[in-house]
Amino acid sequence: MAIISKKVCMIGDFGVGKTSLIRRFVERQFSDQYLSTVGVKISRKIVNLQHLEVDLSQEIKLLIWDIEGQTKFKAIASSYLQGASGILVVADSTRQETIEHLQDHVKQFVAINSNGMIAVALNKVDLVDPEDIEQIRKNMSFSEHQVLGIYNTSAKTGQNVDHIFETLAFKIWRQDNR
Amino acid sequence: MNSLLEKLYVPGHIEYLILDPNLVILDKSPRVERFAEFPQDVAIGQDARLSFPELVGSETIVQQIIAGNTQNSYLEGITRSSQAGTPLYIDFNFERIGNNAILLMEDVTEIMVLKQSLLQRANEAELLLSALKASEDYNKKIISSMGDALFVTTGSGKIKTINQAAQQLFGYSEDELIGQPIALIIEDEQFLLEASQQKLSSQQFLAGVEVLCHRKNGGELIVEFSCSVIQTRIQGSPAFVYIGRDITARKNAEIEMNKALEKEKELNDLKSRFISMTSHEFRNPLSSILMSVDILENFADEWSEDRKDSHLQRIRQCTTTMTSLLDDILIIGRAEVGKLEFKPSPLKLTDFLQYIVEDIQLLAGSDYKIALNLSPSLDGKIFQLDEKLLRHILTNLLTNAVKYSPQGGQVDFEVRIENNWLHLTIQDQGIGIPPADQEHLFECFHRAPNVGDISGTGLGLSIVKKAVDLYRGKIVCRSELGVGTTFQVDLPLNGIPKS
């Protein structure tokens, strides 16, 4: 089967670990050093959907747009989100304000692309007590049907990193092949 | 078309692709390959997404622009992670050209690298501030929720930080305490001195120091303080951290418990002494009674009436002794459990005193003389006195005075009133009390070793002391061996004086 190319975007506040998640997923590396992203940095990786469904011999080339994080002075440019099949919305579980902004990011994407898939990542869970993470999750809810779920991730340990990208890729493929 | 575009519209540093709705390259600028990820795939008639993979997803944008639904679309600062070395940043600008779209590309690396540098600093500062704020907030919440009082002072002891518990405990507001010396709260100079001496040893701390403190309203409280030293950001300028816990209730409970234990111990001692004394004091008269009864049973028929009377007299005497002992024990017992009370009532003092003296004189017999010396000012006057307590005091003191006097001795009993106090002085020329025993005079069952065979329970003076105490009066004893003893009892008139 031919490889399908799909655009997915990473959005969230600055410093939540979007670039680190991509780096862990694509390059299998992690660095504690913070390097802010300007504009958009595009990475790509081929995902074999057999990881999620054994009988499925389909590969998807994900073009992952690492979009400059939102700051109090600059919002995320909607033009970056156009044409994206899905997004990964990221929050830093150690910073409450980034969690509070998740809903805004989801709404921004849905306004541009009502069919796109959305995965939510609570990143840096290695820095938070599991019971606190549970409480954060209890306080969160998304009414948008495109939201696949909330994933506890850690770019540092790799927790759920492959899983969230692969799940997003699979759901995008399934959306196109219903 | 290519050359015309270049001449009319497109500046030299901008490259372009002209695309059809399916993103097929219709035309291109001569050097557009420098922006492509895969330059070899840039060719007219070729899908632009092969050479520019970031165009995946742009199909709708291009179609909307060609259809005239959107005027243009601008993507700022696109770079690729696959690039080694300094990244190349390109701005993408889609616009309509005829029935097609043109993608204008401009190298913005220089400005984006500068922007990245600025953003890096700004975001790092923001993250740091956010972390500091969160940390400060967390620490503040911990400090304010502490049940223990917290004070932080400067090296010289000026309060610079307090928590909510400290305000509540001492009744001061934050404004009233900040800048004040810690001595306002901790009055224990020794503790403050010890704390200040920790300046050079920041690893040590003082713990569990109990300090008597005062609330703002003057109320006393006992606080258990610990003190440690922390180094501030100014080298050589330490701060002192005092953490205090109110242990007033605990200390009071401890004091009460100790009192109760002491009381319990006293009672136990008393019981032991009682058992020991009664077994001793009761055994002799009981043995005498038993012996006399045995003799009377066996020999009554053979003996004369006088001889039988002698034994019956002994039985009576022993019974009287035991009754007297029991009476004393009962009085002591009543005093111990608080049932002996001060109940004043009108009393004609002179009559009462004369009656007491006559009574004792009768018991003492003609071998002893009790000389009552009454102040003339007492004549016929009625006072508010507790007759029962007064009787306990005088009966015991006068009986003792007679008992320990030599045969033919005189006991002087002087009574006067001065400044609303009743002064009673009983002086004998008896055997006296050894100095070592004088401090134990009022202890139950205590008897000086020089009493010899003179009978006694060791309870009389205890009863006197308890009665005087109930009166809130005073009793003083002056005694010299072989010379005599004087007891001076002072009792307030008109009720119990305020202590």
TrEMBL record, chain B:
<dbReference type="InterPro" id="IPR004358">
    <property type="entry name" value="Sig_transdc_His_kin-like_C"/>
</dbReference>
<dbReference type="InterPro" id="IPR035965">
    <property type="entry name" value="PAS-like_dom_sf"/>
</dbReference>
<keyword id="KW-0597">Phosphoprotein</keyword>
<dbReference type="InterPro" id="IPR000014">
    <property type="entry name" value="PAS"/>
</dbReference>
<protein>
    <recommendedName>
        <fullName>histidine kinase</fullName>
        <ecNumber>2.7.13.3</ecNumber>
    </recommendedName>
</protein>
<dbReference type="Pfam" id="PF02518">
    <property type="entry name" value="HATPase_c"/>
</dbReference>
<keyword id="KW-0902">Two-component regulatory system</keyword>
<dbReference type="GO" id="GO:0016301">
    <property type="term" value="F:kinase activity"/>
</dbReference>
<keyword id="KW-0808">Transferase</keyword>
<dbReference type="Pfam" id="PF00512">
    <property type="entry name" value="HisKA"/>
</dbReference>
<dbReference type="InterPro" id="IPR003661">
    <property type="entry name" value="HisK_dim/P_dom"/>
</dbReference>
<feature type="domain" description="Histidine kinase">
    <location>
        <begin position="277"/>
        <end position="495"/>
    </location>
</feature>
<feature type="domain" description="PAS">
    <location>
        <begin position="135"/>
        <end position="180"/>
    </location>
</feature>
<dbReference type="InterPro" id="IPR005467">
    <property type="entry name" value="His_kinase_dom"/>
</dbReference>
<dbReference type="InterPro" id="IPR036097">
    <property type="entry name" value="HisK_dim/P_sf"/>
</dbReference>
<keyword id="KW-0418">Kinase</keyword>
<dbReference type="Pfam" id="PF13426">
    <property type="entry name" value="PAS_9"/>
</dbReference>
<dbReference type="InterPro" id="IPR036890">
    <property type="entry name" value="HATPase_C_sf"/>
</dbReference>
<dbReference type="InterPro" id="IPR003594">
    <property type="entry name" value="HATPase_dom"/>
</dbReference>
<dbReference type="InterPro" id="IPR050736">
    <property type="entry name" value="Sensor_HK_Regulatory"/>
</dbReference>
